[in-house]
Amino acid sequence: MREFPVLKLPLFFGVLSLAISSAFLVFALESHPSYFDSAERNLYPDAIDYGRLARNMIENKTFSRTTDLQPDPLRTPGYPLLLCLFRSDISPVWTYIAQILMLAGTVFFVVKMTKEAFGDCAAVIAGSLMVTEHSLYCLALQTMTEIAGLFFFLCGLGIAKWPCKKLSDSSFKRLAGSAFFLSYAVLIRPSFLMIPFALLFVDAASSWWNRRYIFPMHFSFRSIVFVLLFSIMPTGWVARNYFLFGLPQLTPVSTHNLVYFVGAGAIQYREKVDRDEAQARIADRYELPPYFMAQTPVQKNASTVSEIERKLQEKKWRIVFHDPQSLLCAELIGIAKGSVSHAMEDVCMLTGQQWLPPGFFGLVKFDSSAYHSLFMNTPFILFVFYLHIANLSFLYFGAFLFFMFVCRSISNATVLMNIGCILICGYLTIALFGMDAVYRSRLGVLPVLCMISGAGFARFPSQFTSKFDKR
Fold first, then answer.
1. Which residue from 85, 83, 126, 90 is spatially nearest to 106, judged by alpha carbons?
2. Higher model confidence: residue 6 or residue 378?
3. 3-state DSSP: the chain helix, strand, coil percent, rounded to 5?
4. Residue 268 to residues 250, 277, 306, 325, 447: CA-CA distances in angstroms?
5. Which of 22, 354, 364, 444 makes a 20 to 30 Å CA pair with 153?
6. Threshold 0.85, pTM exceeds
């Protein structure tokens, strides 16, 4: 495959993503115009919360989700600030347009990184997988954090020349830029918090791998500078939560997920109940507040929030590891669900249609009623569903090829360790959603899966060529 100019492929796929997103926006506007009247028309409670936060920030100058304007301990300010910037209180359309542009930027960075690490052929395949991932277009038209968080996160990685270079090899200007974007990504989605520190650990491990001094002055000084710059914004929000609520943390969401999703998942698997019932049983058995109260405590004063968090912190590990066998089974099921789930309900919600789910096991068993339900959907919905199946098939088969044929032959250990770092952190994030992980939970790991899938397909033909040459 002939070499393309450095930015030609990334720009092509970025523009292609922009064109598809814009077409989907126009189609949704024509099909379901009332959805665009307010940010609170979204399907998810999180989206409604962000819309309320932005409205209260603009109208009442307070960071609150509630009508009594009590300060909020749960959400971080990164995404609501963007909603304020694009005046989602007046109309969410400008927010959606901004997210369409961010999605194009996300695709641009994925293709660029893949090209730098694995070449043009891999970049073409990675870009094709990104632009055919239907869930990205759904999230671009919702007031959810995934697209904005992913964009700022990949900006930070791209500036630091990830995955080909280590953070400590960047110039100070690049370090500062990378720290800013990664820091703001954390304020949008706190699940990104540990990744920069994991990447610094990879830096140190890579130095050892190459038999260099593990803590040279070059590495140590630049790492300290990066950590200081990266920590400014998150530390400011931690200080705010400490002074207002006595919570020295960015958000209590991780604790809530461990108790009410990971812990509940084990109960779901063992006792064959749904998530709501499992969460209710946890609250009853361990004398904890219900999940909805932990998410939005009725605040007479700040001690309510700290008291709830203290109880959850005391009991979270006992709840999570109460039945390790059920926990493991539930987590494996959740990771599998999160890895393959679709956004068909979201597609239908955006276009004013109704999704008639056939059921996974019905399709696998060739149940006639399942296929009848499937074919009752409109041609457009069927096209998106088939596209999803094709995209997943190529994505995971390419990733399989990567681990079979490519990763062992990569000469640059930094590339392999950087990619492995993001994959591990991404799947740990999926695990935090418990047994009922959804398509949104895999968005953090999707760019890396597209990259390695592209690399796997790009290298696959050479395996047969080399075997033929040996003969």
1. 126
2. 378
3. 75, 0, 25
4. 29, 8, 28, 13, 31
5. 22
6. yes
- The arithmetic mean of pLDDT across residues 190-219, rounded, is 73
pLDDT of residue 1: 47
The reported pLDDT for the residue numbered 298 is 59
CB 33 within 8 A of CB 132: no
Angstrom distance (rounded) from CA 396 to CA 289: 40
Q: How far is CA 145 from CA 31, 249, 428, 440, in A?
A: 24, 20, 18, 10
For the purposes of burial, counting CB atoms within 10 Å of the CB of 71, is it exposed (0-12), middle (13-18) or buried (19 or more)? middle
Mean pLDDT, to the nearest integer, of 316-323?
94
Long-range CB contacts (within 8 A, 24+) of 127-130:
127/9, 127/10, 127/12, 127/13, 127/16, 127/450, 127/454, 128/13, 129/391, 129/394, 129/395, 129/398, 129/450, 129/453, 129/454, 130/13, 130/17, 130/106, 130/446, 130/447, 130/450
Closest among 144, 28, 146 to 83, alpha carbons compared: 144
Of 133, 151, 89, nearest to 396 (Cα)? 133
pLDDT band at 208 (very low <50, low <70, confident <90, very high): low
Instruction: Compute φ and ψ for 170, nearest 5 degrees.
Output: -80, 155
Q: Residue 173, SS3?
A: helix
- B/e letters for 201-231, b = 16+ CB within 10 Å, e = fewer, are ebbbebbeeeeeeeeeeebeebbeebeebbe
Read off the tokens for 173: 């200007």
Torsion-angle region of residue 32: left (phi > 0), alpha (psi -120 to 50) or beta? Answer: beta
Task: State the Cα–Cα distance between residues 156 and 183, nearest whole angstrom.
Answer: 9
Q: Give the separation between CA 9 and CA 255, rounded to whole angstroms.
A: 42
The dihedrals phi and psi of 408, each to the nearest 5 degrees, come to -75, -20
Q: Which amino acid is at 129?
A: L
Dump pLDDT digits (tens) for 141-151. Answer: 999 999 999 99
Length of the chain: 471
pLDDT of residue 216: 54
- For residue 32 the two structure tokens come to 């379901």
Instruction: For residue 251, give the amino acid letter.
Output: T
Confidence check: pLDDT of 222 > 50: yes
| 242 in Cβ contact with 302 (< 8 Å) | no
